[in-house]
Amino acid sequence: MARQEVPRLFFTKEEQEEIKRAVAETESKTSAExxxxxxxxxxxxxxxHCRDLLEALGITHAKSRSGVILFVxxxxxxxxxxxxxxxxxxxxxxxxxxxxxxxxxxxKEGKPCEALCKAIRRIGDQLxxxxxxxxxxxxxxxxxxxxx
Length: 148
Known about the structure:
Elements (H helix, E strand, L loop, with lengths): L6 H4 L2 H15 L5 E7 L6 H11 L10 E7 L4 E6 L1 H6 L2 H16 L3 H16 L18 E2 L1
Parallel strand pairs: 1-2, 1-4
Antiparallel strand pairs: 2-3
Helix pairs in contact: 2-6, 5-6
């Protein structure tokens, strides 16, 4: 199996740290909890898979129900972004589709880390007004890349 198809080997340690910093930076400006999930493949619809991952990864347990998952499957090139209840109320399907396009283009152009970080920051820009970070907010989910 090629390195580019193995989720835990896809990004260098430095790139993983860059993604983690983008998540932490974004979460410092909003109450959203962001999870970046990388898997080898995705049987079926990636949006349905993301909905299932919200529960499986504990994202729905975030106090404010403001979790977001950015999902990429490497082998079959599927991308999805899915927000929990509070986030979906603020950002509709059109915004998710634009983010998926940004991520997919970045992977195709050989700049996957840059594309994910850009998408993460866009989420923060969109949510900082309607879902601001409160002084008593705590980081409820790991900022590390989630590998499936």
